[in-house]
Amino acid sequence: MDNRVIGYVSTVPIFIDDDITVLPDEGYTWAIKSSIKNSFKKKNALCALAAVIDPEYKNLGLSKALISVLKAICLSNSFSRLIVPVRPVWKERYSNDTIDEFLERKREDGLPFDPWLRAHVLSEGIVRNICHRSITICSSKKRWEKWISHSIVPGRNELPGGLAPLYFNVSTNIGTYTEPNIWVDYNCSE
Prior knowledge:
The chain contains five helices and seven strands; from the N terminus they run E-H-E-H-E-H-H-E-H-E-E-E. The chain has helices at residues 27-37, 62-76, 99-104, 115-122, 141-148; strands at 7-14, 45-53, 81-86, 126-140, 155-157, 166-169, 174-187. The protein starts with 6 loop residues before the first strand and ends with a strand. The relative contact order is 0.19.
């Protein structure tokens, strides 16, 4: 029997007011900071930071299984909410679309065009809002070029696998990548 890991989730417990429906623009970064900053408060929600499936096992319906695991973690810890800054998997195919434009893409049946976002909606998640600055990474030109294995130019650069462009500032020698995500919210109190 193959005991290989084919998927995993990463989460952080947080405190969030139950009546908040517009979630922070800083997404992933806010969740980590909030968990630490409010460490003295009783946690009432779970924020998913990552849900990953081995590429060999994609398109087998495992995304819904990962979402079910996240919901089960919420229930077992008596959390009332699961919030997810979703990284739409097909956004990189539409690099010229802003995240706002990409979110407007729908299938004929009205469901989200992006399969990962669609899996959330079909699992009873509510799309709340875009978090335009979910993750920001700043680093030197040399380090960026090492990470992405090609040179970068001043200004806008396409980033392989990125959801947004990388901007390189010559005067500071810093490249900045700011990734947007889409907040999905689940009621886990039922």
